[in-house]
Specification:
The chain is an alpha+beta fold. 45% of the residues lie in helices and 16% in strands. InterPro entries: ATPase_P-typ_cyto_dom_N (IPR023299), ATPase_P-typ_P_site (IPR018303), ATPase_P-typ_TM_dom_sf (IPR023298), ATPase_P-typ_transduc_dom_A_sf (IPR008250), ATPase_P-type_domA (IPR059000), HAD-like_sf (IPR036412), HAD_sf (IPR023214), P-type_ATPase_IV (IPR006539).
């Protein structure tokens, strides 16, 4: 077949689609004068071959026809997640590195050092810069290589493609748009596919979307009946359909398009789409047509990086670097001015003759000063710590991978989920959080829904008492009596209901048994649940989109309406006690339409046909939506049910309203035509479907409401109480009702009776009266005025309490409608002030956008460090808006985790994440940055003092290699050890005394005052180093009687600097391990080994002759030995006195605890795994690790319980544990361990 012949069968169908598109455009633009036929004629004249011109809003795909699709230039299926390739690695990698100001600065210094005005060799600056860049590029290359290897595996995965009427295996990367593929059970879909046919009856298949959204429950997909026959190669090769669909986009849950086969145009929906990344389950194989490939698939278009976040300390570090630039500039200006003033021909011994170079020509002092300025810039370049960023990155990375990710205290056994640090940029930010924004469902609660109570026909059923009700009774001093469960009560997962009036068919004796029957059928029919397994009530399992929906179907089963089978067009329900007690009958209900739930409609409807021919619409949804759709004349039941809803909400239960409507055939047929048209629309399909659904979801009859309990997670109240003591203000942002949110806050210990509560709600009598009149403008104005008035009243009262210094905690409760107006620019300032005065804030009925807006209000308005925590897709915006985002690995998928910075399994793990790891990280990074600042300033100032002795000429005090290796070898390792292991108190004391966390909130360890103290001692010690060493060598002589020269004095001073700055770091440590001793001793030893080798080697083409044999000459004199002992002692004397006086007269809180517990080992806080004696091999290994001895601090006496030390002790005890990088060195120096604790 040639060109036109191949597409001729679908030509008429395409014409019909073109007409539909033109009609939609005409209708949307309101231009009635256009002639559709004229537009159609244009479509005909611009056709090129058999390829239809691409509409800007959709693409045309020719199935099973590669030649036709080739002209459209669709993207291939090869996927690359790497940042670089062979050509771009160096330029792009270097560009990324030089975006850092410090690296760019050292590049400029390296260039300057190659000019004649530089007093140092280019190697002085090039070597450390090269080492830093190489380390960073190697890290980038290693990470990118892992991504490349993973891409290679994915792209090479085989898939079966239809070619020449048979299935041929090709790699994924060779797949093209329009190909027909066969995917077998448990395999992943290689691209976004249109589901054509499968081995299951009725053209359905089951897929798992865990890689897409983390949900493990199976989803059902149904092929169009017209394509069911294209299952085997001989028949599939005849398929020549044409797909008109939307352009690639990142919307996972929507799809619009049409399939044209012959003269027939069939609408496509998400139910026919199989997305890349999902896998096939419970189906032997399926056949599909490729729609989107490679980076145009929906999963790849969603795989964008989490917004880049920088910690507050890192931004302060940038300011510190700028200050160092300023200090450098001042030092260079002083030297330059001094040089211009000093230069004079009267110093005849300098040889300043007429033809002297410009830098030393007294005839032009301005040029001398300018050139000296650049000379001194290169000489003092070490004031900026080049290795700081690399060291901090390494420290943070190890903190995440070895400490946070492997902390047994944050491991959740039930779900086998450890903590996960998804970024290492924000470790220290965890130690400074002041505001915590939390979702409720799945975050504070377990998201394990249980049917608990219900209201049917105005009658309440269910005798249980919730946790919230118990907390409320305890709060009011009322003692609740335990309700005895009946003998026939049932308690299974999803169902915790007890009421003899409904169970075992007793509902037949109710006041209105018919309404009870409608209630149970609504539960059994109105859903999208999939049954799995044996079709018996005891063994069947349900796959549901949410735990709520599963709980409702389980409830129907226990009430005697057992849903056990679903097909694409019907469901089967086994009904008990309907006609008479004890009788069981299987009933099939034909499912005509499913109007699915979305965030706009907030309800779900199913239109079904009874075996008797009765047409019924069942609807369930939020009470605010259902009440608007009810028919008139139901005031009594509406009022009663509303009271029941409020009672359920006060008990902390989640509620849904149920309603139904009888339809006649004519009404349904007319509506169904509009529904089919809306489903076929290529543009704004969702909006049109919502509009059509609203046409039939009206005049409903209220049946009743359900109440589902979602219990609090274990340890939530204790965690919130601990975090509150730590100075963290906690906000709950939830979509639940006002009463539910308040009671959950009480149950969580967030709000107490001792607090003054400010409640700003739209559920007032005045606002309800206005809403009943139905004027939206009047309603908006009244709510706005109410919010403004209430905010002013609450703020005035709060300021009164604050001014009178009344020790009263405040709590603010506000709902979504009021919050919408309170976030207005005119009122947000008042809301901000009121909320900052409140210890706790509860926002109810809020949307995902409002969650992000509230978070940004504190983050940008108050400039406070915020943390957002949630478990669902509706929490993603809040998580990304906060400084730190924490995702809960819950039952609502993994979208929150994928958007987060840190992931944990339970809310209570925040205690360890913030109070232990966050606080330690803040202390460690603060100390590392301050120490880098100190040691570089000390080193550079000694060179600065020498400038005054050299006529401001820029003469070096140290050899070039000393300057090059000072940061990268002689002082590098100890600071990394401190960054990994430093801590003031242990984990158990950090949690026992949460008030310690407030030191991080107040930024006590990285204030400018703290840095000023470090700078003062750097100034003091540099004077000691220079003048003591110079004074010691003034009359010093070597064994041959010669005076000590410049390089002798410089080497002696450098030795003192290396010894002193390393010992100063030891003094700054609260916690000292053998690794501290090894690293500091090793750094000093590395200096001596280097100088022995460096002084003993001489070549002709370098400046090494200055240092030749220097160390051997120095070590033969007693001046040297006396100097390297006395000078560090004198230099550190000031630090010793300051630390002693500070600890004695103005101690930090942690120093008081150190004194209190200095003779006591730290309490063991590891999880005990012996609750269940039946342990798996992996659990036994973890238990053995938990019982290992802990190393004791040699400084403060606190036990070291960081997880990074587990593997070393494990090997000594014969327990298998993951190896750590430092185990080899540690094992080499192993002594007989002294057990501190016997597990």
């Amino acid at each position: 077949m040639k060109g036109w012949d191949r597409v001729r069968p679908s030509r008429l169908g395409r014409v019909r689609l073109d007409k539909a598109l033109i009609a939609e455009e005409d209708e949307g633009d309101g231009e009635r004068g256009r002639e559709p036929m004229r537009s159609f004629h244009v479509h005909e004249t611009v056709r090129l071959g058999h390829v239809h011109p691409q509409h800007p809003s959709h693409r045309t795909i020719y199935c099973n026809d590669r030649d036709a699709n080739q002209l459209s230039n669709f993207q291939g299926n090869s996927v690359s997640t790497t940042k670089y390739n062979i050509l771009t690695f160096l330029p792009k990698g270097l560009f990324e590195q030089f975006r850092r100001v410090a690296n760019l600065y050292f590049l400029m210094i390296s260039v300057l050092s190659t000019t004649p005005i530089s007093p140092v060799s280019p190697i002085t600056n090039v070597v450390p810069l090269s080492l830093v860049l190489c380390a960073s590029l190697i890290k980038e290359a290693f990470e990118d290589w892992k991504r490349f290897a993973n891409d290679k595996v994915v792209n090479s995965t085989p898939v079966e493609v239809l070619q020449d009427s048979r299935w041929i295996k090709i790699p994924w990367k060779k797949l093209q748009v329009g190909d027909l593929v066969r995917v077998k059970q448990d395999d992943f879909f290689p691209a976004d596919l249109l589901f054509l046919s499968g081995t299951n009856p009725d053209g359905i298949c089951y897929i798992e979307t865990a890689n897409l959204d983390g949900e493990t429950n199976l989803k059902i997909r149904k092929a169009l009946e017209r394509t069911w026959d294209y299952l085997y190669p001989d028949k599939a090769s005849e398929f020549k359909g044409e797909i008109q669909c939307e352009q690639p986009n990142n919307s996972l849950y929507t799809f619009t398009g049409n399939l044209i086969i012959g003269k027939q145009t069939l609408p496509l929906s998400p139910n026919q789409i199989l997305l890349r990344g999902c896998s096939l389950r419970n189906t032997e194989f399926i056949v599909g047509a490729v729609i989107f490939t490679g980076h145009e698939t929906k999963v790849m278009m969603n795989s964008m990086n989490v917004p880049s976040k920088r910690s507050t300390l890192e931004r302060t570090l940038d300011k510190l670097i700028l200050i160092l630039f300023g200090v450098l500039f001042v030092m260079c200006i002083i030297g330059a001015i001094g040089s211009g003033v000093f230069i004079n021909r009267k110093y005849y011994y300098l040889g300043l003759v007429a033809d002297v170079e410009k830098q030393f020509n007294p005839n032009n002092r301005f040029v001398v000063a300018c050139l000296t300025l650049f000379t001194l810039v290169t000489l003092y370049s070490t004031i900026i710590p080049i290795s700081l960023y690399v060291s901090i990155e390494m420290i943070k990375f190890i903190q995440c991978t070895q400490f946070i990710n492997k902390d047994m205290n944050m491991y959740h056994r039930d779900s086998n989920t450890p903590a996960l640090a998804r970024t290492s940029n924000l470790n220290e930010e965890l130690g400074q959080v002041e505001y915590l924004f939390s979702d409720k469902t799945g975050t504070l609660t377990r998201n394990c829904m249980e049917f608990f109570k219900c209201s049917i026909g105005g009658e309440v059923y269910g005798t249980g008492v919730t946790e919230v009700e118990r907390a409320a009774a305890q709060r009011n001093g009322v003692k609740l009596e335990e309700v005895q469960r009946s003998a026939d009560s049932v308690h299974e997962k999803g169902f915790n209901f007890d009421d003899t009036r409904l169970m075992c068919g007793a509902w037949r004796n109710a006041r209105d048994p018919d309404i009870c029957k409608e209630f149970f059928r609504c539960l059994a029919i109105c859903h999208t649940v999939l049954p799995e397994g044996n079709e018996s009530p005891e063994k069947i399992t349900y796959q549901a989109a949410s735990p709520d929906e599963s709980a409702l179907v389980i409830a129907a089963k226990n009430f005697g309406f057992f849903f056990y089978r679903r097909t694409p067009t019907a469901i089967r329900v086994r009904e008990s006690h309907v006609e008479k007690m004890g009788k069981i009958q299987d009933v099939g209900y034909e499912i005509l339409n499913v109007l699915e739930f979305n965030s706009t409609r907030k309800c779900q409807s199913v239109i079904c046909r009874y075996p008797t021919g009765r047409l019924v619409l069942y609807c369930k949804g939020a009470d605010s939506v259902i009440y608007e759709k009810l028919t008139g004349g139901m005031d009594a039941i509406k009022r009663t049910t509303r009271e029941h809803l409020e009672r359920f909400g006060a008990a902390g239960l989640r509620t849904l309203c149920l309603a139904y409507r009888d339809l006649n055939n004519q009404m349904y047929e007319e509506w169904n035509e509009k529904f089919i048209q809306a489903k076929s629309a290529l543009r704004e399909r969702e909006k049109k479907l919502d509009e059509v659904a609203d046409l039939i979801e009206r005049e409903l009859i209220l049946i009743g409401c359900t109440a589902i309990e979602d219990k609090l997670q274990e340890g939530v109240p204790a965690c919130i109480e601990t975090l509150s003591k730590a100075g963290i203000k906690i906000w709950i942002l939830t979509g639940d009702k006002l009463e539910t949110a308040i009671n959950i806050a009480y149950a969580c210990s967030l709000i107490s009776n001792e607090m003054k509560q400010f409640i700003i709600s739209s559920e007032t009598k005045e606002i309800r009266q206005v809403e009943d009149r139905g004027d939206p403008l009047e309603t908006a104005q009244v709510i706005e005025d109410t919010v403004k008035r209430e905010l002013e009243r609450c703020l005035e009262e709060a300021e009164y309490y604050d001014n009178t210094r009344t020790q009263l905690d405040l709590a603010l409760v506000i709902d979504g409608k009021c919050l919408m107006y309170a976030l207005d620019p005119q009122l947000r300032g008042k809301l901000l002030r009121l909320s900052m005065m409140s210890k706790a804030v509860v926002c109810c009925r809020v949307s995902p956008l409002q969650k992000a807006q509230v978070t940004s209000l504190i983050k940008d308005g108050a400039k406070k460090i915020t943390l957002g925590i949630g478990d669902g897709a509706n929490d993603v915006s809040m998580i990304q808006a906060a400084h730190i985002g924490v995702g809960i690995s819950g039952l609502e998928g993994m979208q929150a985790v994928m958007a987060s910075d840190f992931a944990i399994a339970q809310f209570r793990f925040l205690t360890d994440l913030l109070l232990v790891h966050g606080r330690w990280s803040y202390i460690r990074i603060s100390k590392v940055v301050a120490y880098f600042f100190y040691k570089n300033l000390t080193f550079t100032l000694t060179q600065f003092w020498f400038t005054f002795r050299t006529g401001y000429s820029g003469q070096r005090f140290y050899d070039d290699w000393y300057q090059s290796l000072y940061n990268v070898i002689f002082t590098a390792l100890p600071v990394i050890v401190v960054g990994l292991f430093e801590k003031d108190v242990g984990a158990s004391l950090s949690k026992k005394y949460p008030q310690l966390y407030q030191e991080g909130i107040k930024n006590m360890f990285f204030k400018w005052r703290v840095l000023a103290v470090w700078a003062f001692f750097a100034f003091y010690q540099s004077l000691i180093f220079f003048y003591f060493c110079v004074a010691a060598s003034t009359k010093g002589q070597n064994l041959s009687g010669k005076m000590l020269g410049l390089w002798d004095v410089g080497t002696m001073a450098f030795t003192c600097v290396v010894i002193t700055v390393n010992l100063r770091l030891l003094m700054a440590c609260n916690f000292i391990t053998r690794w501290h001793n090894y690293s500091i001793a090793g750094s000093i030893l590395a200096w001596f080994l280097f100088i022995f080798l460096y002084s003993g080697i001489r070549t002709r083409h370098d400046r090494q002759e200055n240092i030749y044999y220097v160390i051997y000459v120095l070590m033969s004199t007693w001046y040297f030995w006396l100097t390297i002992v006395l000078v560090p002692l004198v230099a550190l004397l000031g630090d010793f006195l300051f630390q002693g006086l500070q600890r004695w007269f103005a101690p930090y809180d942690y120093q008081i605890l150190q004194e209190k517990y200095k003779n006591q080992p730290e309490e063991i806080s590891r999880p005990q795994l012996m609750e269940n004696p039946q342990l798996t091999a992996d659990e036994e290994r973890r238990l053995a690790i938990a019982r290992l001895p802990l190393e004791r601090s040699k400084h403060t006496g606190f036990a070291f319980d960081s997880p990074g030390f587990e593997s070393f002790f494990a090997l000594q005890q014969g327990v298998s544990a993951p190896q750590k990088a430092w185990d080899v060195a540690r094992r080499a120096s192993m002594k007989v361990p002294r057990r501190i604790w016997n597990g």
